[in-house]
Amino acid sequence: MEFQNYIGGKWLKGRSGQTFDTINPANEEVLAQIQSADIADVDAAVQAATDMFKSWRLTPAPLRGEILFKVGDILKQKKEELARLLTQDMGKVIAEARGDVQEAIDMAYYMGGEGRRLLGYTAPVEMPNKFGMAVRDPSGVVGIITPWNFPIAVPSWKIFPALIAGNTLIWKPSPETPAISATFVKVFEEAGLPAGVFNLLLAPGADVAKALVSHPGVRVLSFTGSTTTGRAIAEEAGKLNKKVSLEMGGKNAIIVLDDANLELVTDATLWAAFGTTGQRCTAASRLIVQKGIAPKLKESLLARTKKLTLGDGLDPKVDVGPVINKTALTRIHNYVEIGKKEGARALVGASAAEVNGKGFFYAPTLFDGVRPGSTLEREEIFGPVLSIIEVDSLEEAIEVNNRSQYGLSTSIFTQDVNRAFTAMRDIFTGLVYINHGTTGAEIQFPFGGVRGTGNGHREAGQAGLELFTEWKSIYVDYSGKLQRAQIDNREE
Ligand code: UN1
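Above: inputs. Below: predicted complex with 2-aminohexanedioic acid.
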């Protein structure tokens, strides 16, 4: 297979003349060859998006919505095909890959419906014979930079609201998942999205993304990825006065109180910690457990973790797929070694795993005796490693949770409604779950985090429109005379 860049409605070899490969992490075989874009392609893509903005912005939003509905329909038809390619491109198990595609289908229809809403508002004004309203304008040309862990779902949170609001865009997906990214773009082409509205650049390394970030023609940037990259983007974007949304690291916790349902907690924890091989922004990597239930919970988690089947995600019997690449394998193992040195005890896992002698597999790992403040407790590992931290009370659990430099998702298990509501009030993260693990956000609610996780923006839901629209307040004075706001029409 070969994939190319999509600029101004044409599939093109990159101007760099170079190619790179995408590897299936389950068997290390080359899945596809990719034509690599370079900086000149960034200029061409921004030019195409800029030219097309003039007419796309004026296309009535309900008609833009109809194209998005069509995208949703095609995604639905091709769900299985896309899911299989997604699994081969990045490794997640097939059931999760279907979920990844489903999230895009949900978003296509949700934002398609926004074509007949995109609500602004009117409000009373203080002068007679005057009218006031606030409407949403598109922001302009948008640059979208996304990671490999949700190669369809996460881009969808950005692409669909950007398009429905009348923006044009350039998408630079992760070089780890170019095959599924290009295949996704083909769906928009098939749905009849006009040429130049949606442009795709595929490239390894940071040059193309950097050129996109600093390009004067790009007004808005939406980024999901590492904290280091996100901060660098924000600095550059700040200098250029761009609007930028960042969605970065997490160190999500599941809090378990003594009265929790043990079986439910075990199911939910395994899913949140080891689903997607721990490579979710929302993955649970800390288990903050009240001391009374800790021995039983450890026992049940240990027994169930040992039973997890690792392997190629296309095999429906497999629970845990590979991690994305060799570098990830090494990084995860380094963290495990640091954890041991800092005195935590590995109950299971703690090494790379052997699966047919191929692929990048790491054994799901449980660490006991993890101290608040230690490396395992603080840093995002982005792999199948769960750290167990024991606490005495709900208050202590919340304190440990909120001390994290990140603040994306926290869940709590308790059957006591008073404690559940206390937790809802006092947990400071963008997502809070009661009696469910840390993952599983639905697209109609805002997604994002506080502290080091983000920079105050939210994706998805109605909140997801904010980045891609500019409020325009319009006043119409039909009195035929000068009426000064705050001054005229007053008694004093
Ligand atoms: C991510 O964690 O990287 O909430 C995105 C979930 C998915 C999306 C997760 N709907 O787990």
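The CA atoms of residues 111 and 250 lie 27 Å apart.
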